[in-house]
């Protein structure tokens, strides 16, 4: 209800951790919570900046810690885009947000993979992409 906004941004990290558990059905059931958070903050402040900042920060930390995978990136993209595109006010800004996070995930996953590469040029190139 009206108290949902009190859980943003504090609950973004714990919910992100839950959605990153490599279980497809759990991911499908919990990723929509992010849209609910976006919608809740948007209705309260006309933006979802707090949510956006928090999820990007937490996602960086989680992927660096070894969590997340290609399947998560695909589900995140598919599920959140579906929800955003159905929403009158979040269609455009929500889609831009989802695309931003998906690109970030691609780069973070690449970075995590390449860090074990012996080729310093590959690592530097990947680092530049993340930045």
UniProtKB/TrEMBL annotation:
Pfam families: TPR_DOCK (PF23554). GO terms for cellular component: cytoplasm; plasma membrane. It comes from the Eukaryota. Residues 1-79 form the Dedicator of cytokinesis TPR repeats region domain. GO terms for molecular function: guanyl-nucleotide exchange factor activity; small GTPase binding. GO terms for biological process: cell migration; myoblast fusion; small GTPase-mediated signal transduction. This is Dedicator of cytokinesis protein 1. It comes from Colius striatus (Speckled mousebird).
